[in-house]
Amino acid sequence: MTSPTGPTARAGAALCAFALLFSAGCAGTASDQIGEVIRLDPRLDDLIPAGAKIEKLAGGFAWSEGPAWLPKEEALVFSDIPNNRVMRWKDGEGLGVYLRPAGYTGTRARGGETGSNALLLDSNGNLVLCQHGDRRVSRLKKDWSFEPLVTHYRGKRLNSPNDAVFHSNGDLYFTDPPYGLERGMADPAKELDFQGVYRLPKGTTEPVLLTKGITRPNGIGFSPDEKKLYVACSDPDRAIWMIYDVQADGSITNGEVFFDATTWFKEGRPGLPDGLKVDRAGNIFATGPGGVLVFTPDGAHLGTISTGQKTANCGFGDDGTVLYMTADMFLCRIRLTTKGLGF
C-alpha cells in the first residue's frame, strides 16, 4: 500500500483499512503472553488483579505509539511513527491500516520520525493527532482530511507536538519536544530554541506557553479533579515526571519532581518517561524505565507492568478496565480492576 499525498488518496487509504488485514510482519490476532507484573506494594492488587497477564496482540511495527480507544467502533487505533501510519486493532477482526499518511503529508522524501505520535478524541469524538512530520496538532475530518488546530507559537513553527490531553473546558494541553525533526535538536529547521509545554485555549489557534523548563517534555495528563498536571521528561540525563498545580486561568505553577527514574535508566532498564494515563482514582500509569510504572497520586511506586521492551505509551480501552500498551514493535494489553478516566 503506497503513501498517498492528497485528501482523496488519504480517504481511500483509510477506508480500505477495514477490509485489510495488514500482514507485513504483523500478527493480526496473536495473543502470546510476554513480560510480567512486578508487584512492590499490596495496593497494586486493587488495580491489577492477581494472575493478570500481559497479552501480545500484534507485532512488527517500527515504533508503536499513542494508543486511543474508539468507543463507537469498539476498536483501538495507534501510531506506527516511522511508517507514517495509524493502525487499527479490534478483537475478532485483527489489524488493519486505519490512516496513511498520518503525521507527514509533504511530498519530499525525508527521514526521521515522520508519523503521528499521540492520538486522542475531542469532545465530539473526532480523532486528534500530534503530527510529528507536519509539526502540528490536527483534527481528522469526516472527509479524512486534516484540520490543523495549532502550528506556530508567536510566529515560529512548533518543533513536533508529541502528546496532548484535553481539559474538560475544551482547552488542549500539549508537549513539543524535537523528536519529529529529522536531526532532532540539531535540525536547522528548528525555529524555537526551547521545548515547550503549551495550552491551546478552545476555539483559538495561538497557544499559551506554560513552561519551557523541561528539557524533553513528553507524556501529559491531568488528575481527576484537573487540579494537577503531570508531565514526563524523556531526557536520559533527567528521566523524571513533573507535577504542577493548575490555576483557574489554566496556567501551571509550583512545579516539582513527582518521581525520578534517572538511576533506573542508567542501570539499563529499557525505556524513558514517555506517555502516561490516569485512572478514576488518580493513580498514574506511566511508561518509563522498565515498562509501565504505576504510581499513587502522592508518588508511591506500587509496581511495574514490565513488558521487557522500551514501552512508549499506554491507554485505557474497552469498558475502561483494559490497558493497551505500545511497546517498541508490539501492541499489548493487560486487564485491570480499576477504570481509566473518561470511562
Our count of helices gives 2
CATH class category name: Mainly Beta
Overall pLDDT score: 92
Name the helicity range.
under 10%
Strands in their spatial order, largest beta sheet: 1-3-28-27-26
- Our estimate of the beta-strand percent is 35-45%
End-to-end distance, in Å?
Answer: 35 Å
Structural class: mainly beta
**Overall number of strands:** 28
CATH H-level superfamily title? TolB, C-terminal domain
Q: What is the correct CATH architecture? A: 6 Propeller
The 3D shape can be described as globular
Q: What are the secondary-structure elements, in order, as H or E?
A: HEEEEEEEEEEEEEEEEEEEEEHEEEEEEE
Poorly predicted residue ranges: 1-30
CATH topology: Neuraminidase
Attribute tags:
mainly beta, single chain, 343 residues, disordered N terminus, five-stranded antiparallel β-sheet, 28 strands, 43% strand, 2 helices
Question: Care to describe what's here?
Answer:
The structure is a single chain. This protein has 343 residues and is mainly beta. Helices cover 4% and strands 43% of the residues. Residues 1-30 have low confidence and may be disordered.
